């Protein structure tokens, strides 16, 4: 088993690495730098790190000013505050003028854990996905995060990067190449396809393994970019497999599941089931307990795959 | 330009404001007219600009945080030569660059998209902080409405400006004392504004926002102040220059009818 690393850790490390080479890089935080890991950047590059205090709306909008000057801007807070508190600032001051700011939000999803529902963003992808000009990326592991951060530092558009608190295993193969807007087939199959993102990718692969033991040949596709969705790949795999399941640590409303459903409905309708948080708030608990409580499990994914296949 | 010429230019700005809002059939005359003298001083006297090269890196920045006063900024830009004055007739019309609120990617001379109150001042803080990081001498100006100061984000931004000692930032408050629902004092009192700004760490200047020379002096003083940002509270009259619009909250967001526009233009002739 590989060493577990949270995507937020990989984010902070990568920013710190980029500090030496990208002199235009500026990083902002709203008093959570030790948690979001922007503190790693602050340590090596204090002159280009800006703490705005507990003021997320100001952080997002100050970022707009910095980007107007041509800076490569990353700004971080917890997903619930970055997206929830500062939604309209993101929409009107970042996305509308198409400024190259990456909102790198950590502590997304249920696996925030004990802090409870107030701190568990389960609708952030839905909100960001609805905003024109916005790119939405949900990395599955540390390496995918490193590659995403490096690409976003040069990316000339607004972006939302969704990161987690929980340490996760390295899921993607050593030769994995992340590309904004592209999905990757990690396991081919013909009976059903699972589209997954974030920390649920590992569980999707485990579910496919279990199903294989029962003679069900399930493809698994990593979908780190929720917007723009790799519709071509989604449709190709849908046609190949004839049944699909989406898996994400997010509400079933508006996230990967919705994005895939929209594409399939319009282009190649097949049975589709969504695994995610079923339109309800989270609660306090250990991350693994919460994932189990809300059905984000290998067993549930496998059951949903079988159900989707039965609906063919 | 001397004072008389600037006064004449401000009058021209006001004429264009009335004409374009009338042609559009909607818009915000009251707060555009109250801001006209300050914008005239900034665009025709105090700011370093190159209209023929809008993206010149040596330019000063202006952020219209009260984005609904876009007609005043459009008039200043057109009269300063950023784009043809005739284009002002396209204000608020389909496919026009001159959107109801300013858009940075569309209009030469507009550096920042604004319109949602409270955000422009934060963008200005980002500009000023970024210029400080690069040790560049450009100055950043932003104009807020007094009603806008009711937005909590304004105070987040002001705190930031003082904390990071942004003496390259000048915040101008167009204090015309009226907002959509009526008198600022009655809707949600923001006074004592000068004391609040002082307590937030600003160099505070009070000025008659229709006195060209007083505005010039205040802007000069702001630029020489070191170690802290300056706030200029400009006492103004909403609708200034058009008798029937002056001090009337009803003219915040209403376009004049053609006959009203005619009278307004006669008064501004």
State the main characteristics:
heterodimer, A: 312 residues, alpha/beta, Rossmann fold, 2 domains, 7-stranded mixed sheet, 5-stranded mixed sheet, B: alpha/beta, 5-stranded parallel sheet, 42% helix, 12% strand
Give a description of the structure.
The complex is a heterodimer of chains A (312) and B (269). Chain A is α/β, with parallel strands linked by helices. Chain A has 2 domains: 5-168, Thiamin diphosphate (ThDP)-binding fold, Pyr/PP domains (Rossmann fold, 3-Layer(aba) Sandwich); 184-310, 3-Layer(aba) Sandwich (Rossmann fold). Helices cover 41% and strands 20% of the residues of chain A. In chain A, the strands form 3 sheets. Chain A has a 7-stranded mixed β-sheet with strand order 3-2-4-5-7-6-12, sandwiched between helices. Chain A has a 5-stranded mixed β-sheet with strand order 9-11-10-13-14, sandwiched between helices. A two-stranded antiparallel sheet of chain A has the order 1-8. The longest helix of chain A is centred in the first third of the chain and has 15 residues, at 7-21. Chain A starts with a strand and ends with a helix. In chain A, 61% of the residues are buried. With 269 residues, chain B is an alpha/beta fold. Chain B has a single domain (3-267), classed as 3-Layer(aba) Sandwich (Rossmann fold). In chain B, helix 1 crosses helix 3 and helix 1 (3-24) runs antiparallel to helix 9. The radius of gyration of chain B is 17 Å and the shape is globular. Chain B starts with a helix and ends with a helix.
């Amino acid at each position: 088993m590989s060493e577990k690393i949270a995507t937020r850790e990989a984010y902070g490390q990568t920013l710190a690495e980029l500090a030496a080479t990208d002199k235009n890089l500026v990083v902002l935080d709203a008093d959570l730098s030790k948690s979001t890991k922007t503190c790693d950047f602050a340590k090596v590059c204090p002159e280009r790190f800006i703490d705005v205090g507990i003021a997320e709306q100001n952080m997002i909008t100050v970022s707009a000013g910095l980007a107007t000057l041509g800076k490569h801007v990353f700004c971080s807070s917890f997903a619930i505050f970055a997206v929830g508190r500062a939604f309209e600032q993101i929409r009107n001051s970042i996305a509308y003028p198409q400024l190259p700011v990456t909102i790198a939000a950590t502590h997304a999803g249920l696996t925030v854990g004990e802090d409870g529902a107030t701190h568990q963003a389960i609708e952030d992808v839905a909100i960001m996905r609805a905003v024109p000009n916005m790119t939405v990326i949900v990395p599955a592991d540390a390496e995918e995060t490193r590659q995403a951060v490096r690409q976003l530092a040069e990316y000339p558009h607004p972006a939302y990067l969704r990161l987690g608190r929980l340490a996760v295993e390295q899921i993607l193969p050593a030769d994995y190449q992340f590309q904004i807007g592209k999905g990757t087939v990690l396991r081919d199959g013909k009976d059903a396809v699972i589209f997954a993102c974030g920390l649920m990718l590992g569980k999707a692969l485990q579910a496919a393994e279990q199903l294989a033991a029962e003679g069900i040949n399930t493809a698994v596709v990593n979908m780190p970019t929720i917007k723009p969705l790799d519709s071509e790949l989604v449709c190709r795999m849908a046609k190949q497999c004839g049944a699909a399941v989406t898996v994400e640590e997010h509400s079933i409303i508006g996230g990967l599941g919705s994005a895939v459903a929209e594409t399939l409905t319009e282009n190649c309708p097949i049975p589709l089931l969504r695994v995610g948080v079923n339109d309800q708030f989270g609660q306090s608990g250990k991350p693994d307990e919460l994932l189990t409580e809300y059905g984000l499990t290998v067993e549930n994914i496998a059951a949903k795959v079988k159900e989707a296949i039965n609906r063919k | 330009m001397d004072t008389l010429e600037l006064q004449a230019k401000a009058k021209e700005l006001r004429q264009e404001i009335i004409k374009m809002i009338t042609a559009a059939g909607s818009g915000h005359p009251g707060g555009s007219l109250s801001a006209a003298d300050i914008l005239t001083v900034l665009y025709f006297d105090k700011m370093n600009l190159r209209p023929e090269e809008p993206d010149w890196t040596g330019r000063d920045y202006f952020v219209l945080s009260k984005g609904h006063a876009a007609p005043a900024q459009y008039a200043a830009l057109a009269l300063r030569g950023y784009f043809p004055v005739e284009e002002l007739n396209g204000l608020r019309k389909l496919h026009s660059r001159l959107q109801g609120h300013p858009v940075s990617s569309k209009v030469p001379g507009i550096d920042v998209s604004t319109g949602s109150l409270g955000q422009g001042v934060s963008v200005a803080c980002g500009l000023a902080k970024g210029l400080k990081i690069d040790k560049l001498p450009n100055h950043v100006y932003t104009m807020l409405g007094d009603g806008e100061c009711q937005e909590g984000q304004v105070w987040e931004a002001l705190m930031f400006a003082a904390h990071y000692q942004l003496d390259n930032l000048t915040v101008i408050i167009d204090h015309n004392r009226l907002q959509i629902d009526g008198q600022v004092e009655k809707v949600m009192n923001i006074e004592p504004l000068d004391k609040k700004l002082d307590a937030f760490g600003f160099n505070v200047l009070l000025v008659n926002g229709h006195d060209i020379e007083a505005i010039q002096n205040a802007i000069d003083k702001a630029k020489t102040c070191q170690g802290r940002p300056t706030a200029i509270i400009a006492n103004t009259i909403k609708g200034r220059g058009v008798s029937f619009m002056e001090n009337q909250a009803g003219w915040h967001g209403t376009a004049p009818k053609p006959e009203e526009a005619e009278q307004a233009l006669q008064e501004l002739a």
